[in-house]
């Protein structure tokens, strides 16, 4: 969690704000409100919407699982870092499958795969399934690894820039169908 606080404080300083002030709180709330996706914002926020995913970037989107009748639960509104592209979809890490604290731990561990330390528009994660398996200390990824089909994606992708990854990871936007968030997180925790 210290990692997140350090990153937020760095961003505040970069923007010219002092931590723990009204201006700093307003800045953070403004960041959160800009990230707060909904069906409406996915239709309106054209500057952040993209038609396809790129490896190592982060996205929100609406999804209807192909085998939803057979699954005990699935996330209707994933927050995913794609790691492999396929002709009909992609493999990615859906951060919603672990609790918010573990999301930050996971992002901290994944920072070693970042293309740079700027955490701006040029930053992405150089991730593959093989690189994650080789980095055995990233246990949280085992609960997050999910396959998504393009045919079941019901919106465009809302791209989250690298300087907002931590904030997006903490937002309570998981939308599990078939189970509560706490049940999903509890079951996911057993996997690592």
Model description:
- This protein is α+β, with helices and mostly antiparallel strands.
- It has one domain (38-189).
- The chain is built from eight helices and eight strands, in the order αααβββββαααββαβα.
- The strands form two sheets. The protein has a six-stranded antiparallel beta sheet. The chain has a two-stranded antiparallel ribbon with strand order 3-8.
- A hairpin with a 2-residue loop joins β4 (79-86) and β5.
Topology:
Layout: H1 2-15, H2 22-35, H3 39-44, E1 49-50, E2 58-60, E3 74-75, E4 79-86, E5 89-94, H4 100-110, H5 129-134, H6 141-144, E6 145-149, E7 157-160, H7 165-170, E8 176-177, H8 181-189
Antiparallel strand pairs: 1-7, 2-4, 2-7, 3-8, 4-5, 5-6
Features:
192 residues; alpha+beta; 8 helices
How many β-strand stretches?
A: 8
Strand content: 15-25%
The low-pLDDT segments are none
Helix coverage percent of residues? 25-40%
**Biggest β-sheet strands, sense, barrel:** 6 strands, antiparallel
Mean pLDDT: 86
How do the SSEs run, as a string of H and E? Answer: HHHEEEEEHHHEEHEH
**How are the strands of the biggest sheet laid out side by side?**
1-7-2-4-5-6
- How many structural domains can be distinguished in the coordinates? 1
Helix count, DSSP H or I runs of 4 or more residues = 8
**Shape category:** globular
What Rg, in angstroms, do the CA atoms define? 16 Å
First and last CA, distance: 19 Å
Which structural category fits the helices and strands? alpha+beta
């Amino acid at each position: 969690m210290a990692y997140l606080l350090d990153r937020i404080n760095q961003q505040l300083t970069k923007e010219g704000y002092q931590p723990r002030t009204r201006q700093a709180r307003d800045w953070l709330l403004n960041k959160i409100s800009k990230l707060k996706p909904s069906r409406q914002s996915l239709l309106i926020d054209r500057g952040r919407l993209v038609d396809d995913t790129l490896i190592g970037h982060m996205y929100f989107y609406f999804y209807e699982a192909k085998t939803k009748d057979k699954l005990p639960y699935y996330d209707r509104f994933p927050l995913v870092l794609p790691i492999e592209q396929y002709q009909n979809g992609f493999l990615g890490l859906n951060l919603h499958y672990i609790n918010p604290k573990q999301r930050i731990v996971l992002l901290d561990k994944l920072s070693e795969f970042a293309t740079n330390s700027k955490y701006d528009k040029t930053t992405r994660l150089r991730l593959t399934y093989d690189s994650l398996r080789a980095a055995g200390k990233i246990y949280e990824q085992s609960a997050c690894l999910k396959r998504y089909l393009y045919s079941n994606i019901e919106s465009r992708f809302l791209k989250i820039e690298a300087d907002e990854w931590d904030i997006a990871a903490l937002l309570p936007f998981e939308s599990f169908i078939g189970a509560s968030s706490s049940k999903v997180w509890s079951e996911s925790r057993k996997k690592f």
